[in-house]
Amino acid sequence: MKFDVLVRGGVVVSGAGETRADVAVDGGRIVAVGDDLGPARETIDADGLLVLPGIIDEHVHPIYHDDPRETSIVGAYGGVTTMMGFAYAHPGQSLLEEVEALRARCEQGSVLDYTIHAGMFDAPRQVDEMAAVAATGVRTFKIFLAYAAQGWMTDDAALVDVLRTSRDVGGLVLVHCENGPVIDVLEAEAAAGRLAEDPVDALLRSRPDVLEAEAVYRVAAVAEALEVPVFIVHVTSRRALDVVRAARGRGQFLIAETCPQYLALTGEAVREWGALAKIGPPLRTADDNEALWAGLADGALQTVGSDHVPKKLVAERDLPLLEAGFGAPSIETMLPIVLDGALRGRITLPRLVQVLCEHPARAFGLFPRKGVVAPGADADLVLVDPAATRTLGAASEHTNSGYSLYEGKEVRGALRLTMAGGRTIVRDGELVDDRPAGTFLATGPFADALYAPAPDAVTTL
Fold first, then answer.
1. Cα dihedral sign for 440, 443, 448, 451?
2. Which letter does DSSP use for residue 275 in this model?
3. Residues 175 and 316 in one domain
4. What domain range is 248 assigned to?
5. Arithmetic mean of pLDDT, 25-54
6. What residues contact residue 185 under an 8 Å CB cut-off, 6+ apart?
7. Is 29 in contact with 378 (CB distance < 8 Å)?
8. Which residue from 36, 141, 381, 396 has the fewest beta carbons nearer than 10 Å?
């Protein structure tokens, strides 16, 4: 018997450690990991390379200037093999209809497997649709404590309704944590020139870290009172991380994510890039960067997601800073940024696999199909040369944005191959299979995927 593919001679990295082994693939699944596994129709030489599970990007916006198909391809260039995209329902829109519309677009074009989060911009009215949405396999619901002036904010009463309903339908709530009403006041003052003369200072002062930390504390308190798990997206600051650390330290059912931009960039990027580096919550300080790396290393933070929101260079670079939208392209550069940190000793390689692969799979009910190199798992693999270096920049990246906030940044490690479901999608920087063969994955159940750690054991989910 011949396997379809044999990945031979690489160092397989898991959340538990590193071991030199071959990986046999057949029928789109991993069927064996070990030595002397036998012949294969195709052999991939992985000598000198790291063999990682496919990256799960749990925080993707496959809209704006990259549609679901383009987003999946851009992700594959960055080692992503599963993308989790947000379907946003604004006031007056049906949550179920928006979820179904995004799923249809992904089915038509995604080269990667995908899941969907239901984004609730009108939570008091959309809460009644949560059961119907969960019945389709979409059991994650995102709400916002910011954007009060736009009418998108979930207030405390609606927060209670969403958390309780999510519990009843077997779901998980993801929360954007900033104090919306106070930020609205500060943004109005910034627009009037009363907060700071410099527009960059005004932007950063209008969304300070203390208002992120306050919102994280409020969500944690409500979730604890209701005995409901909660997921905090894009933690950006030391102050917010301190709240997360305290909640998890006392055993609360809480998971927290950060993003590569908050590990590698500061507010100075806004001075260089203007509106193209306007991200919500905003980029912080070098001290916050260091705190977040420490949080990844010691387990206070459990996952990393890209929060990929591609803007367009020509259309948006000259927009007034305080009027521009939020976001930046990041799905393709997420693994390079975190890998560079690991190869420089900020976190270990097993920890990288935990926060980019294993923990997202566990958090969203996809484990052990995803997030691990083991028999029975999907054959989602990323081969990385740890001895190589590369320079990030728009010329070598593939989003339609046309720019990279990491322009000229040299990073350690280079991606050599991305395999999804046994299909080699990208090899040595070239797209070799763009068939829309990705499949929808239902999320959950979450009860077995999440647990509250003991105060002295916060290094795993």
1. positive
2. G
3. yes
4. 52-363
5. 97
6. none
7. yes
8. 36
pLDDT at 39: 96
Look at residue 429 in the predicted model and tell me its pLDDT.
96
d(CA 317, CA 422): 40
Same domain, residue pair 36 and 117: no
Q: Over 50: is that where the pLDDT of 458 sits? A: no
CATH code where residue 174 lies: 3.20.20.140
Determine, yes or no, domain membership for 457.
no
Interval 3-24 mean pLDDT: 97
Say whether both 21 and 59 belong to one domain: no
181 & 317 share domain: yes
Q: Are residues 135 and 165 in the same domain?
A: yes
- Give domain status of residue 441, yes or no: no
| Shared-domain flag, residues 329 and 255 | yes
Mean of the pLDDT values across residues 101-127?
A: 97
Tokens coding 88? 């946003």
Which residues, at least 6 apart from 430, have a Cβ–Cβ distance to it below 8 Å? none
Asked, for residue 395, whether it belongs to a domain, the answer is: no
pLDDT at residue 455 tops 70: no
172 contacts 141 by C-beta, under 8 angstroms: yes
The whole-model pTM stands at 0.96
> How would residue 117 be classed by pLDDT, with cut points 50, 70 and 90?
very high
Q: What is the pLDDT of residue 447?
A: 56
Burial label, 227 (beta-carbon count in 10 A; 0-12, 13-18, 19+): exposed
Name the region of 201 (left: φ>0; alpha: ψ -120 to 50; beta: rest).
alpha
Judge whether 71 and 83 are in contact, CB under 8 Å: yes
pLDDT digits (tens, 9 = 90+) for 375-401: 999 999 999 999 999 999 999 999 989
| Residue 456 resides in a domain | no
Say how many CA atoms lie within 13 Å of 148 toward its Cβ: 15
Residues 172 and 29 in one domain: no
User: Both tokens of residue 436?
Assistant: 């829309």
* Residue of 46, 31, 19, 4 whose CA lies nearest to 427: 46
- Rounded to the nearest angstrom, the gap between the alpha carbon of residue 446 and the centroid of all alpha carbons in its chain is 18
Q: Residue 65 pLDDT more than 90?
A: no
Question: H or E stretch including 3?
Answer: strand 3-14
